[in-house]
Specification:
Blueprint: H1 6-28, H2 37-62, H3 72-75, H4 87-98, H5 102-110, H6 115-142, H7 149-156, H8 159-188, H9 192-215, H10 220-242, H11 254-270, H12 277-302, H13 314-317, H14 327-335, H15 342-348, H16 362-385, H17 389-396, H18 399-402, H19 406-415, H20 422-431, H21 444-459, H22 464-499, H23 511-534, H24 540-543, H25 547-568, H26 576-598, H27 606-619, H28 629-669, H29 696-708
């Protein structure tokens, strides 16, 4: 039994005290100014302890990761989808793939309820649910040749529940990809700086991919320095392009961006993973983590005060202007990805298990990446809560509520219990180089204003507009990396589904199959995106209201599969690790689904909303946000579709959970009847560290492996 050294005990005691101090101030402070630095302290202290102790316990005690066991990347290496990838590059790919719009936008919207509920859920949720889900799914998928979540459900739960899981997961994936793409289009439209800089990441990534594969294999540090230097050059050049005669060339219409995004998604899905996807995601991670780290540092230096209340009146009344509904369950649904995300389970059973070198790396890549995403969510919440609440509600309140002028917005905000003058609203827009900030819903502009506030306090107020537009571009880059990886994962899911009918599709690198399924996936989300861009109330806009619920329902599927696998693999006593988060997530999401379907409040219930607008049509009235009678008919259609889909998805998830419970009970009663689809053990020949920084023993193992190699 190892005994901790006094130095180690002292360090972790200090970390615990920092985190505890942060939590104490946030929880107990009432009526006095609270620095945002306490939120950062609570988060970082909690993350460090969770990764060091809880994640290590799950990886080694529960999952029993085996460093001697060959992964699918090693056994099935074909240079297309299966490819052993350096842990540092894979960490970047996985983080970039999972970190989409959710951790940036969800916490900003949830700030309506106050900073405390969001902070508690983001940190506690990721430690005990989100990061656990990601790591456990990655482990079990790695043990099953990189099987998709739906296919694992079919093989381990049963054909009935598995079919429901396959259908629900694929449908939800298309919705998620369409929503992510729409956010990108809205961010890049009329932004030559963002379009140029993000476009340049593609040739830079191709260079990095060939550098690591052909020119200098294994030289990750070299290629990292080259990639970062070129990325910084692209960012600087992007601003120059935006102010030059080339600006018009890179100022693309939304419809043009749709075509480019669909084409990019298709190409990224069919190219070998080492060529574009992995290096591009790795490259973007430097910018993502770098920006978030600088934000945290800026908070510590500038010590901005949290201006939003700890818990607002909207949390109890449920009548907030940003989104309707009470704190439970809707704050958990709104925050989504920053704490728990079903989309992550698709990545953890998609690209990543086909690229991971060693089972021992699942802790760093699965659990660690999710903690990194949660830190993004915390910084987004900080950014939303340090700006004036009046400005926050003016930016996030719909035009139908606050009006279209600074005077009407100021009056509307006063009815919410906050104050902001028309002059202050105009000044805030002028400071960031915008004509108006009113009704900039969706969360992204609010985050950009908060980012500009933090950075300008450190670098000077004259750069506020620069930091605002930098943040807008940063958000687009954040989301695009989730879109390309998500498209590839959607292809894997569709191949698994079709492979149950026609066997060759199960070979994920079979060229006809990967081309056909990539085209179908891109065509599906591309269609909804195209319609959404051309019809403000149509296409993916129609499905936007069920984005959060569908994502959390997918997490319930993932946790149900994980719990079933823990039970069937002889880990019954540890099934609570995913079972408790499953019960919580199912309770939250099914409650939200019930309210969205049956609530008598038209701002919450889809069918009640449909009834109100249908009555308006019958009376010949046009109700906001509709502007014409055609819009009224569209709202009726959208409400009906969203209500039906919410009900169908909820039923599918109930079927999956019920069938998973049946499989678990059957195994406990008659273990001999259970089968596991785990791949046979093959000894690994790869020597690689488990964590980001190799231990002394791991360095020696690497030296021994190099010395034993032929020709060394």
């Amino acid at each position: 039994m190892r005994t901790a050294k006094p130095r180690t005990i002292a360090i972790w005691t200090l970390v615990a005290l920092v985190g505890a101090a942060g939590w104490s101030v946030l929880a107990l402070a009432r009526g006095e100014n609270v620095s945002a630095a306490w939120m950062v302290a609570a988060a970082l202290g909690s993350y460090a302890i969770a990764y060091r102790f809880y994640a290590k316990f799950i990886a080694h005690k529960v999952l029993k990761v085996d460093g001697t066991r060959a992964t699918p990347a090693e056994r099935l290496n074909n240079g297309i989808d299966f490819h052993p990838t350096d842990r540092r590059v894979l960490l970047g790919h996985h983080f970039a793939a999972i970190a989409g719009a959710g951790p940036l936008v969800g916490p900003v919207l949830a700030a309506q309820m106050g900073y405390l509920p969001g902070t508690i859920w983001i940190i506690a949720g990721v430690i005990f649910a989100g990061a656990v889900q990601d790591m456990v799914v990655l482990f079990f998928s790695t043990r099953r040749d990189g099987r998709s979540l739906g296919q694992m459900a079919r093989e381990e739960i049963g054909p009935f529940g598995g079919a429901a899981a396959l259908l629900a997961a694929f449908a939800i994936m298309i919705i998620l990809l369409g929503v992510l793409a729409l956010v990108i289009v809205n961010a890049l439209a009329a932004s030559p700086w963002g379009t140029f800089s993000i476009g340049m990441t593609i040739p830079i990534a191709l260079l990095m991919g060939f550098y690591l594969r052909v020119l200098r294999p294994g030289r990750v540090t070299e290629v990292s320095l080259i990639g970062v230097a070129l990325l910084l050059a692209a960012l600087v050049a992007g601003r120059w392009v935006a102010e030059s005669s080339w600006a018009d060339t890179f100022t693309l219409a939304p419809s043009t961006l749709v075509i480019w995004l669909v084409a990019y998604g298709f190409i990224a899905s069919i190219l070998p993973v080492w060529m574009l996807l992995a290096p591009r995601d790795y490259l973007s991670t430097f910018m993502k983590i770098g920006t978030i780290a600088l934000l945290a540092l800026g908070v510590v230096i500038a010590l901005p005060t949290l201006k939003m209340d700890a818990v607002t009146d909207f949390a109890e009344r449920g009548d907030g202007p940003v989104f309707a509904g009470s704190l439970f369950p809707f704050v958990f649904i709104t925050i989504a990805c920053g704490a728990l995300s079903g989309f992550h389970a698709l990545i953890s059973s998609g690209t990543t298990p086909k690229m991971i070198q060693k089972e021992t790396q699942v802790r760093m890549i699965g659990y660690g990446s999710m903690l990194m995403e949660s830190s993004v969510a915390i910084m987004a919440l900080v950014a939303a809560c340090i700006i004036d609440p009046g400005l926050y509600f003016a930016m996030n309140g719909p035009a139908g509520v606050i009006g279209t002028t600074v005077e009407s917005a100021s009056h509307a905000v006063a009815t919410f219990g906050y104050t902001v003058s028309p002059a202050d609203l105009a000044k805030a827009a002028h400071q960031v180089g915008e004509q108006s900030l009113l009704s900039r819903t969706g969360g992204a502009p609010t985050l950009a204003v908060g980012v500009s506030e933090i950075f300008s306090r450190v670098t000077g107020g004259s750069l506020r507009a620069f930091w605002y537009h930098f943040a807008i571009m940063f958000e687009a880059l954040f989301i695009l990396t989730a879109l390309d990886a998500g498209t590839r994962v959607g292809r894997f899911m569709l191949q698994d589904m079709l492979g149950n009918v026609y066997r060759p599709f199960k070979q994920v690198s079979w060229k006809p199959g990967l081309i056909i399924t990539s085209a179908l996936v891109c065509g599906l989300w591309g269609y909804f995106l195209w319609v959404g861009v051309h019809e403000p109330l149509g296409g993916i806009n129609q499905l936007f209201p069920i984005f959060g619920i569908s994502n959390q329902l997918l997490a319930a599927v993932a946790l149900a599969v994980c719990t079933t696998l823990l039970v069937k693999s002889g880990r019954l006593k540890w099934a609570w690790i995913t079972g408790i988060p499953l019960v919580w997530d199912a309770t939250v999401t099914l409650t939200a689904s019930y309210q969205k379907v049956f609530s008598s409040d038209p701002r919450v219930g889809f069918f009640k909303q449909r009834s109100v607008y249908q009555d308006g049509i019958d009376a010949g009235k046009v109700l906001p946000p509709a502007k014409t009678m055609d819009d009224m008919h569209t709202v009726v259609t959208n409400s009906t579709v969203d209500g039906v889909l919410s009900a169908v998805l909820a039923v599918l998830i109930v079927v999956v959970i019920a069938d998973a419970a049946r499989a678990c009970v059957r195994h406990v009663r008659r273990p001999a009847l259970s089968t596991l689809s785990e791949a046979p053990y093959v000894e690994s020949e790869i020597v690689a560290p488990a964590g980001l920084i190799p231990t002394q023993r791991e360095r020696q193992e690497e030296r021994d492996a190099i010395g034993a190699a032929p020709g060394s």
